[in-house]
Amino acid sequence: MFQVSMTSDEDILKLKDLPIWFTHAKTDPVVVPTYERLAKVNPNAHFTYWDKVLDHTGTQKNADGTPFEYIGHWSWIPMLNDECVLDYDGKPVMTDGKETPILEWMAAQKKA
Hints:
The protein is α+β, with helices and mostly antiparallel strands. It is 23% helix and 18% strand. Strands 1-2 form a two-stranded parallel ribbon.
């Protein structure tokens, strides 16, 4: 399993100019400390923080009809459904004064 201590300060500094958006669920203990370190040096680092990963498409349901809950490490599922719109502070990610979901944000990034 990945340990936060495996990410050195040198690794963090390598990412300081890279546009990056983490998606993560509270039920997965790996990413938060790494993001918090990176956010101190990278103003273009974002983080969508889910309570848990639920199927919002309606295709996967529990027997009682409620949305199926995936394991927390599968937070890439809502990312691929373009459901990531809030940053770590609970506010929308903005691009040029407009709320921007993750796939639109990704399309707007330029290589440094």
